[in-house]
Amino acid sequence: MTSEMKENLLRELKKLHERNELSKMVGPEYFEPGMMEYLDKSEGLFDETTGNITIRFESKGTRYEGRTEQIEKVHVGDVIQVAREKDNPYNSNNFVLLTKRGQDVGNMPAELCNAIAPLFDGGDLIFESAVVSFVEPISKRSRHAKQAMLFVELRAKIL
């Protein structure tokens, strides 16, 4: 693992942590579609002494390939499998998010994928657990919503 690879990951964790911190400073009326929704659901933490990482992120691509329908069946606390998807045509660093039954419920954000994949592929980072931390199926959202909201909490460790 190079220090640059680790720094890339720490930069992405910091962005997620800053979203969470911003949620504590703005009121409920603060809203910027696609950019600043659900700020408090994101998080990125790194414990330098243990190498433990906690990442809470929004699943991406939930509008496509029947994922919206699958998210209707998902609940907070459900186990999520985070699977490497090197043959993804859009990003060879992709990680797909699957239910315990193997149903696709989206992808890890590209920026996180790009920071995590080199460490994961090199055996320098392992996933310990992943669960649904927040879900708002499209059936529970505004009639103007175009996609379901799903956040995953991933616990990992840098070795």
In short:
With 159 residues, the chain is an alpha+beta fold. The chain has a single domain, classed as Alpha-Beta Plaits (2-Layer Sandwich), CATH 3.30.70.2330. Helices cover 24% and strands 30% of the residues.
Write the layout of secondary structure elements.
Elements: H1 3-23, E1 43-46, E2 52-58, H2 67-71, E3 80-84, E4 95-99, E5 104-107, H3 110-121, E6 125-136, E7 149-158
Antiparallel strand pairs: 1-2, 2-7, 3-4, 4-5, 6-7
Helix pairs in contact: 1-3
Describe this structure in words.
- With 159 residues, this protein is α+β, with helices and mostly antiparallel strands.
- The chain has one domain: 2-Layer Sandwich (Alpha-Beta Plaits).
- It has 3 helices and 7 strands.
- The protein has helices spanning 3-23, 67-71, 110-121; strands at 43-46, 52-58, 80-84, 95-99, 104-107, 125-136, 149-158.
- A 4-stranded antiparallel β-sheet has the order 1-2-7-6. Strands 3-4-5 form a 3-stranded antiparallel β-sheet.
- A hairpin with a 5-residue loop joins strand 1 and strand 2.
- Helix 1 (3-23) runs antiparallel to helix 3 (110-121).
- The radius of gyration is 15 Å and the shape is globular.
- The mean pLDDT is 90.
